[in-house]
Amino acid sequence: MKDLPVYTSCLLKRNVETNDDEIFDKVTSSGTAYYKYYAITNNNTEKVYVENFQEAEEVINKLKEKNSANSDKLGIVEKYETAKAEFKDVETSVNELYEKKNTYVDPYKYIGKTVISEASVPTNLGVTLIRPISGIISSRFGIRARDNHKGLDIAAPKGTAIKAAAAGKVIFSGNGAGHGYSGYGNVVVVQSTSSVVILYGHCSEVNCRTGEEVAQGQIIAKVGSTGISSGNHLHFEIRYNGSAINPQNYVYN
Ligand SMILES: [Zn+2]
Q1: Cα of 147 to ligand 1 centre, how many Å?
Q2: What is the rounded average pLDDT of the residues 133-141?
């Protein structure tokens, strides 16, 4: 039955002898056929069509079980149209509608340095910084945007050259795991003054060695997504006397 169209009623003469087949023929020739089915909506936009309500409900329940990011935005709309839509089965519908939740994990949750308040940030670092890369700011320093995000994230393609924002001595270069820089992946740490240390995290490769002196503007690493990272970006962190401070007070502002 589910493949048969649903028909609107229409009047037939009573004084004519007829049979079911004849009625069926008259209805199909003179009436308009409507198909009843269901649309599953995401954010009020029809995305997939299924043949019956049970399937629509099943799709939504499965998406909720899978913790799909759009679980709260899904809906079911009853359709009553003169043409059939292209129907999808439950599994296909679930796959098409599923949206992964953003699973970004901030590396600094594992490091435990204190973020100092804006008020105690020095107006003059004692060094003038240049931008290590050009790119799009994808996450700001934690005080304003994200809890305990101790740097500034700048998204750029893998392999983009990272320049030293300030001159200094490389106090660490390489995979930070087990060296006090877990989560940063390949990281370069440059000490510029007795108070100022700059970290460049998640690099695809490093182009300087621990102990080396680097000049401002020198290419010290390449952008990547190593360590705890969800995509290619530079994590640019400035520490002043050991505490992370907001890089946008000095650069990218
Ligand atoms: Zn970051």
Answers
A1: 11
A2: 91
Domains and CATH numbers, the chain: 6-97 (no CATH), 107-249 (2.70.70.10)
Whether the model clears a pTM of 0.70, i.e. scores above it, the answer is: no
Question: Are 143 and 152 contacting, i.e. CB atoms less than 8 angstroms apart?
Answer: no
What is residue 154's DSSP assignment?
Answer: E
Residue 172 has pLDDT above 60, yes or no: yes
How far apart CA 36 and CA 231 sit, in angstroms, is 44
Q: Which residues contact 1 (CB under 8 A, 6 or more apart)?
A: none
- Pick from 48-62, 74-88, 163-177 the range whose average pLDDT is largest: 163-177
Alpha-carbon distance values, 84 to 33, 35, 93, 156 (Å): 10, 6, 17, 46
**Cα 21 to averaged position of ligand 1 atoms, centre (Å):** 72
Residue 130 CA to ligand 1 centre (angstroms): 18
Contacts of 143 (CB under 8 A, 6+ apart): 115, 117, 118, 246
- CA angle, 249 then 251 then 253, to 5°: 70
**Token digits of residue 190:** 């440059």
pLDDT for res 66: 85
Residue 235 C-alpha to ligand 1 middle, in angstroms? 4
